[in-house]
Structure prediction request, 351 residues.
Amino acid sequence: MKTSKKSLMHVLSMSILLSLSSTSFAELVMNPAPGENGQASLTWSAEEADQFLNGEVTVAQDVTPPGSTKVTTTLRSSTQAPAATVAKKVQILDTSSNYRNQPVVNARSALVLDAQTGEVLYSKNTNTALPIASITKLMTAVVTADARLNMSEEITLQPVDFAGAGGKNSSSTLRVGDKMNRAEALLFALMKSENPAAAALARTYPGGKPAFVAAMNAKARALGMTSTKYYESTGLDPRNVASARDLGILVSAASQYGLIRQFSTTASYDFNLGYRVLKSNNTNALVRNGGWNINLSKTGYINEAGRCVVMHTTVNSRPAIVVLLGASTTQARNSDATNLMTWLGNLPKRI
Prediction:
């Protein structure tokens, strides 16, 4: 079965149903029940959205024999307050000078942070606010998740979503008039870094783009991101700035949302928009290649920002946050990230 326009929501919805009868892990092959148009017909309730947003259920989708969809659900206990209602501040302790044989990185700014202790393991120019390009979309996702909006609501892309920002046009494989639900728009924004999708998420927020941008900046303040400023939701505007330190805080907060973890690390997805299928891949080659245990990812690029990436990863059983801003090329950015994670894997384990 080709991935249909509705199958994303079908998989997410079915994962909740599976969780009701599973104790820890369930794997099965199912045939989606067709709706009036022959495609899967479903809705995503507020309760289901809450469960997925808070990481109680994760979904891995695979295509098995034609006409069937393989769905894997993993259940987690929910012992903490919902991430969307808690502005968790991260205490960052810079002890990077304690670690020797640190790799040289190409990027203008770099940070490796122990995600559990807040200890800075690697630091380069971490307090300078720099343009962050599409790393912006990580905060776009957090604000969207916090709003608890109807993820099944259909969004139609409008010309204003393609207008760009900061004097830059918004190039895209999407078109004016394309229709998708809010979950698909968020997946487009996080996985494929589609600017019109991120713009549409802000436009359809209660109060529109002004309220959305205000919520982005309010969330940054609540998290303690002191050098961060947002002007729009895509990252095309070079006035969207943050320090590597601030982005370490943001990644720590965003990693608490199951939806953001899942969508930002989806390696590929076929979006069926009704009259055409967009075969889409994650913008991070390290996610696509699958060689590292990456729990959250977002890349970014505009001329002013250079090549950027943020990741939450687990290396040698150590949860860590990696931030790179201002690398000269995509290859240099990937090399920096690989070198930092390799170095991280060789550090002594915590006692």
